[in-house]
Amino acid sequence: MTSAPTWVVICAMVISQTGFGAYGVVVTKFAQKNHANPLVFSFIRDVCAFPLLLLASFVAERKILFPTLREMPAFIVVGLVGMFGGQLLYILGVYWAGPNIASAFQPAMPVWATLYALVLRVEKFPPCRALYTWAKLLGILCAVVGAIGMTVFRPPSSSQAPVDNNTTASPVVTTSCHFSPRHNTHDTIIGCVMLLGSTTCAALGILAQKKLVFMRKDFRYSDLPINVTAWSYMWAAGFMGLASPFAKYFEQAQCGVTANPWVVSLEVTYPIEYAIFITSCLGYMLIAWSTMHIPATLVAAFWPLQVPVTLILSYLTLNDEMKPIQYVFCALIIIGLLFVVWSNYRQETVSTQHVKYVPLPSNVQSPTASPTSVPVSRDDDDDDASCQSQPLLGHNSWPLGTSTRT
Questions:
Q1: How far apart are CA 134 and CA 130, in angstroms?
Q2: In this structure, what DSSP letter does residue 328 have?
Q3: What is the spatial distance between Cα 202 and Cα 120, in angstroms, rounded to a whole number?
Q4: Tens digits of per-residue pLDDT, 362-376?
Q5: pLDDT grade, residue 401 (50/70/90)?
Q6: CA distances for 230 relative to 52, 81, 170, angstroms
Q7: Of 10, 90, 246, 369, which has the fewest Cβ atoms less than 10 A away?
Q8: Is the pLDDT of residue 394 over 50?
């Protein structure tokens, strides 16, 4: 697998998060006054996205690779946790706690991704005294604080209902129904637990995709991100189909509508089409492709970018107001992302400066060059590196990654 340039991966993540952020504006523009059941909306989105992703994998990756029984559990986990779990728990969280509280929870996803990446050993624990470690933590913190600040200080919108359900259009937002908070402390606590589970599932979905698929060199799908997205979406659609019988309950209890929830108006088809082609197909394909090339925590760090995209597009297309303090928080998000990108670049630079060696097999003739030694370069940021001399092309030693000679 050829590694893509870092700037290309960063552009892919910016495009995906822009598509997710614009989704809330599309829903508000075309379907705010229409009661589209959230479970039905999610089911239609997932079912339609699966064949399109298969078609995209055939066009872009030149093949559709059908998984075996031993490979299927990886797709079940990614589809169940990262896609279905995030969507369903978000819907329940909005129902119990209201969309405004739900919007404030979404930017916390990079924090959970970083925490679980270390706990599950998806990524190595960086040196505590390294400068790039603190830069990464500071960048994630800045991005999260900036996204929450833009959400909290958002003024009332004249183009939306008193309760706004499109503050943050994250990948797990799949509802265009007009939700109303229940204004009950007990229910709000339950909703917060659901929203905590939603952001946790979103983080675990990316980490599972990285650990179960792209980090396994013996896995046939390790260089086929579109196939991975397609088969994961198949299971997400299946699980959402199992939850769809409860659509009638949401239609009556929350939206106050007794009509058939499976009847979709013409205005709702526009956000559904956007959700299928942009958020589900393009967005998740770019996320899977980016996860294949860069650390999962760096992918998750771009999540708060959805908030300024949503608010800026609302300001341009829906005549929403923006407070001056929101521009400050928007700049804070951008600065945080720059810190994270620099940290990842610096960490990769440090890791490539440490040359490793492995012993030459006993049945292979060693080079005739006399043993020599050179000091291993030490980076100022990495206190784990040592200045001890290491053998270079010496007796019974061979550089890692080179082919052996007989």
A1: 7
A2: H
A3: 15
A4: 555 545 444 444 444
A5: very low
A6: 8, 15, 19
A7: 369
A8: no
